[in-house]
UniProtKB/TrEMBL annotation:
<protein>
    <recommendedName>
        <fullName>Citrate transporter-like domain-containing protein</fullName>
    </recommendedName>
</protein>
<feature type="transmembrane region" description="Helical">
    <location>
        <begin position="59"/>
        <end position="79"/>
    </location>
</feature>
<feature type="transmembrane region" description="Helical">
    <location>
        <begin position="102"/>
        <end position="131"/>
    </location>
</feature>
<dbReference type="GO" id="GO:0055085">
    <property type="term" value="P:transmembrane transport"/>
</dbReference>
<keyword id="KW-0472">Membrane</keyword>
<keyword id="KW-1133">Transmembrane helix</keyword>
<feature type="transmembrane region" description="Helical">
    <location>
        <begin position="9"/>
        <end position="28"/>
    </location>
</feature>
<keyword id="KW-1003">Cell membrane</keyword>
<dbReference type="GO" id="GO:0005886">
    <property type="term" value="C:plasma membrane"/>
</dbReference>
<keyword id="KW-0812">Transmembrane</keyword>
<feature type="transmembrane region" description="Helical">
    <location>
        <begin position="534"/>
        <end position="552"/>
    </location>
</feature>
<feature type="transmembrane region" description="Helical">
    <location>
        <begin position="404"/>
        <end position="422"/>
    </location>
</feature>
<dbReference type="Pfam" id="PF03600">
    <property type="entry name" value="CitMHS"/>
</dbReference>
<feature type="region of interest" description="Disordered">
    <location>
        <begin position="310"/>
        <end position="341"/>
    </location>
</feature>
<feature type="transmembrane region" description="Helical">
    <location>
        <begin position="490"/>
        <end position="514"/>
    </location>
</feature>
<feature type="domain" description="Citrate transporter-like">
    <location>
        <begin position="31"/>
        <end position="500"/>
    </location>
</feature>
<feature type="transmembrane region" description="Helical">
    <location>
        <begin position="181"/>
        <end position="204"/>
    </location>
</feature>
Amino acid sequence: MVLAHTSKVVLGCVAFGIFWVLAVFPSVPFMPVGRTAGSLLGAMLMVLFRVISPEDAYAAIDLPIIGLLFGTMVVSIFLERADMFKYLGNLLQWKSRGPKDLLFRVCIVSAIASALFTNDTCCVVLTEFILKVARQNNLPPQPFLLALATSSNIGSAATPIGNPQNLVIAVESGISFGQFLLGVFPAMIVGVLTNAAILLCYFWRYLAVEPADQERGGVVTSHRFTPARMSHVSSLNPDDFDCVSEPIIRSASVNGDLRSRSVNSNSNAAADADMQFSIRSLRSSSMSHEMVEVSTVPVLDGASSRKFTRTASQQRSVIIEDAPPSSPTDDEAAANGDKDKGELPEVVEKRWKVLVWKTAVYLITLGMLIALLMGLNMSWTAITAALVLLALDFTDAQACLEKVSYSLLIFFCGMFITVDGFNKTGIPNTMWELVEPYSRIDSARGVALLGLVILILSNVASNVPTVLLLGTRVAASAAAISPASERKAWLILAYVSTVAGNLTLLGSAANLIVCEQARRAQFFGYNLSFWSHLRFGVPSTIVVTAIGLLIVSSY
């Protein structure tokens, strides 16, 4: 394919360049509009510059991919509501034998979860939990955050629903769910184990915790957390707020404002009841936030109690106040006892309903996976599972649908148009024609060169645009060899473009999610820097990619 007219090429490059800058660097100073607006801007410029017609722009949007993304998002939302990720988090600590065992579990659990529920979802729900576990066990969070991000990326390569670029490949190539799984799963398993081994070697001495340190549990003494935005009450353990049966005797410091009262053991009960204890940590604007949790905790001998109130916001606040003492009479206690007895069947019934609902969610998700393995249409299978879950919820679906990442769906629509317009300039074909003779997959040298091209382009242009730009070209080149080679080329593209996200912090959306979630975590925030990720990401990505190429190319 020859290049288009010079003006079309120049204007198309300008539109694609703006899209690329805003997609890779969504907070650039001159236009901090984000990725979604950047993709729409690129698409609009492609149409305004007449690089692509409005009709072709609409046709460029791949509706099966959008439908598959929407369906998997809804299913993931219901799985989160059904405590699936809570159980995965508990699995990380179940009979753990130490820091190294915990790191290995993070790698395995996050890889499997990402293959089934997408890597972005896995990183969103597990990042703060892993930070909390690291803090409670007096461990540095960096190796565990890197384990979560890198293993999620590697694990998501195993299935078509693991990440967005695999969704594109599965729809464009027509490879069934089962064929995709068989082709990439062995490389994924070996890659995750290799990545875990590199992590253990790299952080071995940081994970060597003395027995005395392990006994201290939640007290962090050997590692300094670097908060990007921590709560003012960072000295308080958030677990203490959920405990309603254990007395708390604590003095707290908030922004240099320390209020403490000492209780004389010889004072009478009336004086104890009148004791006022107040720790307030809030900003001037946080009083308007919605209250989401209130609990009462007994203090000292039970004469008084403290009320804990949490607010839901990015800058959360904790208010600890004394609640007025309550001493119900015998008649009131009897009345409350009778009321509790009367409500007991309702509580049991409610628990059974929740159990049945969770079981239904798990069974429907399992049915969706079985249907995908049977080769049914992936897009409509995911949409059907999502609609069945919405129907069985027996509530207004608005609350659930509001959690869908519509910005991601819109980003994909704009990206489809922008990439299609860039293809019409002829530049991608011209560049591919220069590389194609040397990157044919019928030789080891060709596979290595193809993997290198995908690796570099995935970090320069991001993995999904790379798949859209290279997919059909790589497949057409391999199809000239044999049909089996075409399928192999698609699988190589899927594996390498996914693992390439581990090279740098900006290489994958999952990396950025882990970084942002860790930075904003309340009480135990941590900054995962670009360079700390790069020092581990480069050797890990090169080794895991090389091993995976050997396995996938031999399929």
